[in-house]
Amino acid sequence: MAVSETTETVALIQSDAVAFGLIMAVLGLIFYTSSRQHGFWHKFYKHIPALLLCYFVPGALNSLGFFTADAGDNIYHISSRYLLPASLFLLTLSIDLKKIFGLGWRALAMFFTATVGIIIGGPLAIWLFHVISPEWVAGDVWKGMSTVAGSWIGGGANQAAMKELYNVEESLFGTMIAVDVLVAEIWMIGLLIMAKKSDGMDKMLGADNSKIEDLKRTVEKYTRENERVSHLNDYMIILGIAFAVVGLGHLVGSWLGPFFAQFDWAKEYSLDSHFLWLILTATFAGIGLSFTRTREYEHAGASKIGSVFIYVLVASIGMKMNLGEIYHNWQLFFVGAVWMLIHIILLFAVAKAIKAPAFFIAVGSKANVGGAASAPVVAAAFHPSLAPVGVLLAILGYAVGTFGAYLTAEMMRMVVAG
Question: Whole-model pTM?
């Protein structure tokens, strides 16, 4: 099918610095209003999570033409490559590893359910529209959709692998990136709302969330019993350690990424990804130092600083969302939306059957669809202590991403071929 051309518009804000200033002002305003104890805002935030607005307001501003594409990309690059690994390190510093592993088999079950939902959802969506309106999915559309599968099961590296494997043309690939981002981010809005309503959802699912609540209470008790007044020295040491770990992560990535790039088998598991090694280094450094006296900096607010970085990351992710893209090639967004709907239906069906809590639905899905950049964000929306669970599952997604996407693509090809 033909792919429409988008019209170039001049952004209201041309400067990255001004764009960053605006989204920080937005974050400040959201936190100011969410801290109100009475009146309209108090009632408003009972129903709408502040984290959702931190994501949606920058997205709305971008859709209205406030930011250049470069501004969103540049701010996201800084946030994901520097602030994200720093936040993962700081949030992992107070981790109770035994209790995280004690969350049990349901976490893995929901992760693989999410993966299966994407693998079968793509071919089913293509089949449905092949029956209803064949021209929507004619030609090489299935090839383009293979890149969405790569992104939704693994991440950017897996998406690029599918693009190269099936020689997806640039115009179609650009459209598929828009489908990928917009459909996934609309689902993220749903996940953030789910985090706000998790207790009610757990009751509906008949889920046992006692282990999750136990982990939350352990972290909260540890923080409450040891928290102290923070000083400038504390903040400088916390930031010094965090960004030293980030620097180490980039160094490890610059060594191991090119090393594994020499091996085809390693590329299939994204072991050639600089970003993968960066995230792994930050996460395991946090886990390792959680057994040392460095953990005591949690008493001075290490996880609070990590949470600040997460909120900046959320806003930068929001800046990449453009609701106006629905107008162009809206047919493909329908296909992507049906695909995601199949994924969601399967998740809830399995969760109900095995009595998995809402947290496992959310983090299992986002570990696939969002990867290491957003899975910890969704996990932290339930509780900051749960962020490492998102990271660990997202890393598993990188391992199965290329294989899962290839399987999805071949099934879509067979559907189109009839």
Answer: 0.67
